[in-house]
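Q: I have two molecules that I believe assemble together. Could you output structure tokens for the complex as a whole instead of separate predictions?
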Amino acid sequence: MHHDNGIWVSADDLMREESFLQSAEKEFSVDNVDQTDGKWETNRRDFLKLLGFGLGAATIASCEIPVKKVIPYVTKPDDIVPGVANYFASSFVHGGDYCALLVKTREGRPIKIEGNTLSSLTRGGTSARAQASVLSLYDTRRIQSAGRINAGKVEPMEWPMLDREVKSKLASGGQVRLITNTIISPTAKMALKEFTDKFPNTRVVTYDPVSSAALLAANQQCFGTRAIANYRFDRADVIASFDADFLGTWISPVEYARQYADKRKMRGQRGLTMSRHYQIESHMSLTGSNADNRILVKPSEQGAAIVALYNELSGSSGGPKVNDKAAADIKKMAADLRNARGRSLVISGSNNIMEQVIVNKINDLLGNVGTTVDFSAPSYQRQGDERDMVTLINEMNSGQVAVAIVWGANPAYELANAADFKTAFAKVGTRVSLGGTIDETTNLCTHAAPAHHLLESWGDAEPKAGYYSLIQPMINPLFKTRQAELSLLEWADSVNLNRQDAQPYYQYLKSTWASDMFAKQTKYSTPTAFWDMTLHDGIFEVPAAAGSTVFNGAAAIDTNAVTKPAGTEVEISFYETVNIGGGQYAHNPWLQEMPDPVNRTVWGNYLNIPVEWNGKDEINGWKGLTDGDNVDVEVNGQKLTCTVVRAFGQMPGTVSIAIGAGREMGGCGVGYGVNVNPWLTLEGGLVQYAAKEAKVSDKVGEDKHYACVQHHHTMGVTAKQTSDGQTINADEAALAFQGSLTKRSIIFQTNLKDLQDLEEKLEEFHAEAEHLNAQTLYPSTADYFGTGMKWGMYVDLNSCIGCGACQVACVSENNVPVVGKKEVKRHHEMTWLRIDRYFYGDLENPKVVYQPMMCQHCDNAPCENVCPVAATTHSMEGINQMAYNRCIGTRYCANNCPYKVRRFNWLDYTTADTWPANEERVFRVEEGDKPFYADNLTRMVLNPDVTVRSRGVIEKCTFCIQRIQEGKLTAKREGRALLDNDVRSACQTACPTGAIIFGNLNNPESEVNKASQRAGALAYKVLEEINVRPAVNYSAKVHNSNEELYS
Amino acid sequence: MSQPVAPVRHVLIEGNKTYHQITEDLCSPTEKVPSREWVVAFAVSAAFLGLYIFAITWTVWKGIGEWGSNRTINWAWDITNFVWWIGIGHAGTLISAILLLFRQRWRTGVNRAAEAMTIFAVICAGQFPIFHMGRVWLAFFIFPFPNTRGPLWVNFNSPLLWDVFAISTYFSVSLLFWYTGLVPDLATIRDRASGFRRKMYDLASFGWTGSAKHWQRWESLSLVLAGLSTPLVLSVHTIVSFDFATSVIPGWHTTIFPPYFVAGAVFSGFAMVQTLMVITRKVLHLEEYITINHIESMNKVIVLTGTIVGVAYLTELFVAWYSGYIYEQFAFYNRVFGIYWWAYFGMMFCNVVSPQVFWSRKIRRSVWWTFFLSIVINVGMWFERFVIIATTLARDYLPSSWSYYSPTWVEISIFTGTMGLFFTCYLIFCRVAPVVAIAEVKAILKVAGSQYIGKNATVKRSIPDQPTIVQAKSNPEDSGFHGA
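A: Yes, here they are, computed for all two components at once.
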């Protein structure tokens, strides 16, 4: 240190003492402060300081909560108000499945599917499949970019690179094949046409996972149109369905269900009418379960049954013969049909062309052509023909095909001849998949050009001639995927594509509509106005004038060309389920966990076996088998091990099993159930959903994860006692004593002709219940709830077809967790709304009543008074509320609930806990994955308005309280009283038949009140007499059976 | 020779003990090196206690989903075990309080151990309501304490809340009563001890000096606590029965439950006392204090309460039929012939049929029969609670929700683990405190003075290996056990 400036600080400094210089070097050192004798010594104060600091630091460090950043909008988008949902019109299209939608988005992400009430096809109804489609948007198994496929993995490539590769292959001049399911989009077809024009050696091969090829072929013969007729169930007084599951899966179930229910609703007056529905089948389908009469025929007798009806109506004879009982019943049915000339409808799910031709002829004989079966607005929802696939396989085998493009189809799984397809497909040089996940087919491809999810896409649909609707994206693509149509146009070097635009396909679609659709209307003068309004409404309907549909008399009827009865001991049929379809929906956990409406099983397919009555007091499974037993089944020489479920209504001598299960790759459906597609056979190239013989072994084991949500199935089925031939209540004989079930006030049902008896009985019951419930020390609950809002529900059991759309809607709306098969097996399912299914009537051929069961919001709720911490209480509006934060999980409320609708979070299903160590038993897409709800992508589907419940608390239906709140806020903001339509529960909006009505019971004008009044004495409360005072009214089930059939 | 005492009074303590002998006999187990039996028993109990801690940790860590209960049967082994353990506790209170008020002086031989059993059983019982909670870390919500949540109060309508009060009151009164009785005895041990041990016992005996004033206060307190305990014998299990009786579930919603539960509780409690006493008297050589007469008296209580319980079972069935109410009828039909029929018949056999053998005096006075049947009854009473809880829930109103329940290893471990907890506590108790109330036994030593007069007085000591003497002076025909 040198005194450059002549300033010194002390004498030492001035003298330049050595020691001073040393210490001045270390100006800020504290060394010498506490240093004594060159040794470290901590004094007390420092020790305390250090201790305090150490402790504080350690505490703060260990308390640190992981920071999750919430990023506010810097510039708020015009249309998005945080916390307020936006609804956009769109459409659900998956192959030929169609539904007009409104999609609810929150902060720019779609979270819920609603029906679009403007559509005259679906009229606001939805299906479970449509409801669940929002979850597949957030599927973690989606392919995230284009690329080359290698060993089940996508090696990412930039799109231009992929385009270059694909284009070079296409340009090589070899044969090109495009494999698709039904395409109902007019604009997509234009894109396809551009593609085929560019590459003329291209052929588009279309098949459907569940085929209607014979129906299309027959219609071509009979009516000159290769399309599905415009069926009018709402005009049909008598319906005869030969194994067509039109309420569940056949062609357009949402549309048909609405029409069907219109003819079934009780109006509350005597002398009312309702349609009569015959179902001719061996396995109880969803539709069969709703039928008034089921006529049991073996799968191989379907043709003979159709012929029997035809012979009866036409007075001819010949052709194969159906079993005697069915023959007699069909005779009586024919009389009914004949009486309803022009107001009846006969359909068939058969995939035999002659059978479908005869069915068309029957409709012609009955005068239905042009009324209930008309072609003025034919449906395009099934276009596929699997015979083309046979041709394609041959072509591929011969090495002719250079490039195969698979778009939205999964032939390597779905085809009956999938094994042949796989071998042949491998011989194609370039195999491009537009699929969204690595499914069985994509895995075999060389290139992945993943398409957007529906909710990321632009598009349009024309399910029926003249009924158009639009598809608009709800969210920016989550991954580097590309619209499938755009890929095709790109490869075809389309000149109509504006590549400069951010969304070329949007422009393409818009210009198509400006040129094609705009001209079909007169309302809007400019294409832009037309486009804007159509996009807003989602639909554009220009139905053709009802033209005359004429049956082509030249269509030859050959009653011998139908399927011949097999005469084997056991036949097997294969059916499509409401939830997972032909397997296309198998990777959606919501659908997998939705119980099959009829046999109430989840996660997989089960062999339905008939039940047998021992004549005294036992209802047994066929061969002594019981639910969850494993058996070996051999069909066409191929053996599979299936798990058995005892199925009421399954015809003796037949068994059945669902297709669509046993997926091998692509998502959560892998490993559940068995793939029975190899059992399907082709007859004349047409796939047959039955096999003439099934060899079922005795029990070979047990499925320890057999998962069924309902163990007791019947509500007093009847059968004959061997000892005296008397008809007794077989269920009660097997269970306990006569009256032990049927005297319960859960289900009331009657035949239409006995309606008056039931009304009298119910009036008596209501009076008795009222008398019992009046015996109380406490003031009437009416005093509490007489003013303001009192929420309640009305469930019309006559309209409910059991399709399960409401259940999936509830799961979606209320963040109800998926728990997986093993947990459902332990009866830990979390569904807030379930559809109880009870069989009644004849044991061998029972009827079914479906009962949606959710929290009944009792005014004298047994759950509320037993909670020690008052976590569940009654609101002033009559809602039974759960305060999750207060719940300590004693579960007394669940025990004390007579309806058993309370659900307990047994494990950390939602991973809402901050304790990840407990997550090993919760649901995962695959073993080894992180828990389903732990994935941020999956969590995007959660409804932000509904709390995600953590482990250890009870939850249950809230009557969609978040919707009530939203409705109230809207009304308040608009300065008006709450209207009846302001609040609609999720189950209500989802229902395709309008079976569920929700509203304010204190408003005499509300729909819910009016419906209850219309039902009169038929409206009842479940367990009305136990004085819990539920807020849900059910109406008795009325069927319209032809009782002559039982004589 | 004229006798200075009334002939109706008979020997309650056998072996012509002197006061000093009593002190010696009863204090020695706490002073000696533990026997091998004790060590083995303790090791086994502690192992089960370890299992208990493991299984409870597992449950809290992973969730109640580790148990077999489900959406329909939300309570099963948890609450079954709770009611079972609570019931067991009742014998202790009955013996110490009600028998005290009824002047059944023979009770002094068994009351200490029975009270200890009560406390340990209530500790075991208390585990279940706590750990069956989904969110046990919030268990404190059930206490009505001032809070900043509104304040948010508890629900006084809920029988579960009544449970909280009933059981905590029961536990505190029982503990006080038991400990009050222990104070003079702990002082006795203190007086014989030295060093650290003396210091500890000094602390535990609250500086008891044995002055007349101390005894006077002690007597008064004992009486007050007995008075407090007496209604508890009836109220606790009544309130436990309200957990079921106030519900709407057929099979639970019955007015017979309070008396039926109390009788069942006393029944199972005495069975458990028998189980414990038969072993304790043998292992600790207390046959002269806990005599065959004690055993016989308790067996009489068992046959009485067992029969009451039997009548209750039959009454339930009758009333179900007589009610004409379909749900009730079905619930009881299901109980007897339904999916858990074996539990019902097990219960009927163990609780109603098996105790009837005690009408035979010979069996009543047989240690082996008593031990065997006490186990059978304990099993039967467990079945009873299982039948009431699980069977009822499995088949309630809506057939769609009917389900089946079977336990997982976690539940089985927790139950067997509470046995470990119970016996660990009991074995420690045997080592630190006299299992027979020294002071109280001394008070009844000479109720029948004949053994100390005349030629009888020559017998100075109890000699266990000379049973003839013992037997000669305690002829069972002269039993003073008018109780039970």
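A: One point stands out. Chain B has 16 helices and no strands.
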